Structures are given as C-alpha cells and as structure tokens.
TrEMBL record:
Protein name: LuxR family transcriptional regulator
One MF term in the entry's GO annotations: DNA binding
Keyword Nucleotidyltransferase included in the entry's annotation: no
Domain HTH luxR-type: 327-388
CDD domains linked to this entry: LuxR_C_like
Keywords of the record: DNA-binding, Transcription, Transcription regulation
Hydrolase in keyword set: no
Pfam families linked: GerE
GO terms for biological process, alphabetical: regulation of DNA-templated transcription
Length: 391
C-alpha cells in the first residue's frame, strides 16, 4: 500500500476514534445498559460483550497505542468468532445511534465508524487469535477463519448487480454458492416488520417465492427474533442466524408442505448504520433434507446478511421524488387491485371481489405495470410493497 493511502486510512481510523472519545460518556452508559440486559439472558454473552467494550474503550484504535492489554487479549482469544462479531455489531450499532442523535452531519461520519469496527473485527479475529495466542500449535482458528474468504467472494459477487432485482438474485445465488446450502429465499420486511414478502429464490421455484406474503404472527419464533422483544433488549434485535432443526415444529404446515421444509437456517438481513433489519434469508439443503448446522458458519452468515442489507438498502431508499411520482400517479383502483394480487388473488378472483370484469382488471394491471416500470405483476407488487403503497 502506498504511504499516501496508508496515511489517509489511518486518518479515517483516528477520526472514528475521536468520535468514540467525544461521546465516550454516553457510549459507556449505553454499553453498560446493554451489557446488563444481556446478562439477564446469557451470562456468557455478557462476558464477551463487556470484555470487548472494556478493551475497545482502553485502546480506541485496533492496533498500536500505549495502553496495556490488561489480560483482555488472552480472554478475547478464547471467545468464539460468532460472539466477537455479535458483540462488535452491538457496539457499532450504538455508536451509529448516538451519532444520529447528536451529530448534524452524522451521515458523513458513519463510514469512518464502519471502517473502525471493520478493522476491530479483522484484528481481533485474525491477527490476535491466529498469531498472538495460539496454544500448543492449535490451528483451529486458522481453519475457522476460512469463512472470511467466503465473505470476500460474496461481497465481490453481489456488487456486480445493477438493479434491485439483480441484487436480490445475486444475494440468493451467493448464499447458496459460497456456503454449503442448496436453496435460498430472500424476504423483505414491510408494515413495520409485521410482514415478509418474497423477493427472490435460488434452487427453488422463484415464482412461488415472489408470490409469498408471510404474516410473522403466524410464526411466533420468527416474530420474536426480528425484534418483538422486551423494551430493555430492543436495540440488539438478532444479528445472529437462527437454526431450526425441524421446520414442522415452528412453521405453518402450508409452507412445510409447499417447499418440503425439513431443517433450515434463517439469516437476518441487517443494516448497521440504520440500526434495523430490512429482511431475512432462509437457507436449507433441499426438500425433505434434515441437517445439523456447523456454528462455525455463523460468522460468515452474519457478515453475508450485513452485506446484503447494505446493498438492498441502496435500492429500497431510491430517490424520493421518483417514488412519490409513482405513488401519485397510481389510481385508488390500481392500488386496490395490487393489494389483492399481493394477497395471492388471481385476475379472475380480483375481478369477482371488486365486481369488475376480468378484462377491466387486466387493464388496471397493465396500467399499474407501466406506471411502476415493472416487467410483470410480481415485480409490480414487490415495488408497491417496497414503496409502502400497499400494506
């Protein structure tokens, strides 16, 4: 790396460290509160989080500096990478929220914070654990850190996408191709995270996925995991994947039978800078196939989910004027028909419910497709849901 670029990146790290120092009192209070809430659920998770908070507070930068380790590094070396990533995510999320509350130019400061926590992840997961504290020649950390290669490949792959639809397709393919899964379905949350709509599927009928509109109330386990938690733990709504050994015990029979669900993994699609989940990915190894998940996959799954979230957010938060123009041009009848299509109604069923002829309904659908610049009714429904035109 050139000295000029190296100096520039170091300036970004110092800028982020200055942010942590500037808001240290509030961050410390928030991190302490989160640690106490974690302790009510899992003492081990609290230990990891509190240790990392103390270590970051002491150093502020991921390497160098004059601060003594105080034994923290030895303890961190014993933590599972999944727990390190989870704790650093919580810490980063808190920084972004504090910035939003206090800094008028918060958007310009988020990238430096993201870069700082990226380096904390890199340094604590790779350099510390693989070089400084390997015991007895144990190479397990080196094997476990191979997931970082999958993350790099995944990120490079999804960045090739040029549209929202391509992004969804690339994300699904990447989850299946770079990780040991054969089927992937991507969903977006709408209606304040009460509903999941299918965006794309890989290794499964894509049309079936795109027609899905799942009310999370029908899956209590999933509803809880996306944030319907007690107020004191609201801010760390799950970043971590959920392994479901037997889908038939957690999911409605309709979906189990339709897709042959056996075992599956659910990955949150999370945007750290926004502090919220925008969707989820469902993964399995084929119809009727039960499997046990290797938790060493979880760090990669978490990183895949974050990368997917950042990419999709770019399209979900499209230029406001463009969306507003679409919203104003759609007639009440067109919106009404799109709502029925989103609920799974056919053209004939929509016509019957609205006491219209089937030909009239087709005309309304064609008009809505043109106004939304959609290729088909599935894409039109997806866009209308993303825009909040239908709920």
């Amino acid at each position: 790396m050139s000295k000029e670029l190296n100096d520039h990146l170091l300036r970004l790290l110092h800028e982020a460290a200055d942010i942590l120092h500037r808001y240290a009192a509030e961050l410390n209070r928030e991190w302490k509160r989160i640690g106490e809430a974690l302790g009510k659920r899992n003492a081990r998770v609290q230990e990891v989080f509190s240790t990392l908070c103390a270590f970051v507070q002491a150093r502020l930068l991921p390497y160098g500096g004059e601060h003594p380790a105080n034994g923290h590094l030895e303890r961190i070396a014993a933590f599972h990478p999944e727990m390190i990533i989870f704790s650093l995510n919580l810490m980063e999320n808190t920084v972004h929220q504090v910035l939003k509350a206090h800094a008028s130019a918060a958007a310009a400061l988020h990238p430096a914070v993201r870069y700082l926590f990226f380096k904390w992840n890199e340094w604590l997961l790779y350099e510390v654990n693989e070089q400084s504290f390997k015991i007895g020649g144990d190479s397990s950390w080196k094997k476990e850190s191979l997931w970082k290669d999958a993350v790099i490949l995944f990120n490079e792959w999804i960045l090739r996408a040029q549209t929202f639809e391509e992004s969804a397709a690339h994300i699904c393919f990447g989850f299946s191709y770079f990780l040991p899964f054969s089927r992937c379905a991507l969903f977006q949350f709408v209606n304040q995270e009460s509903t999941a709509i299918g965006l794309h599927g890989h290794g499964v009928d894509n049309g079936q996925i795109q027609r899905l509109r799942v009310e999370l109330d029908s899956i209590p386990m999933l509803k809880e995991s996306v944030g319907k938690l007690k107020a004191e733990v609201h801010e760390f709504r799950h970043f971590r994947p959920i392994y479901v050994p037997r889908a038939s015990e957690q999911f409605p029979r309709l979906y189990v039978d339709l897709f042959g669900l056996a075992s599956l993994v659910i990955v949150p699609v999370y945007v750290p800078t926004e502090g919220r989940m925008i969707g989820g990915v469902v993964l399995d190894r084929g119809s009727g196939r039960f499997f046990e998940v290797d938790r060493r996959l979880f760090p990669a799954l978490m990183k895949f989910g974050q990368s997917a979230g950042e990419l999709l957010l770019k399209w979900i938060k499209a230029p406001k004027k463009e969306w507003e123009g679409m919203a104003e041009s759609l007639s009440p009848r067109e919106i009404e028909i799109l709502k029925l299509l989103a609920d799974g109604a056919s053209t004939l069923e929509a016509a019957c419910q609205l006491y219209l002829s089937e030909f009239t309904v087709r005309d309304y659908i064609s008009s809505a497709l043109r106004k939304l610049n959609a290729k088909n009714r599935t894409e039109a429904v997806a866009k209308a849901l993303r825009l909040g035109l239908i709920g």
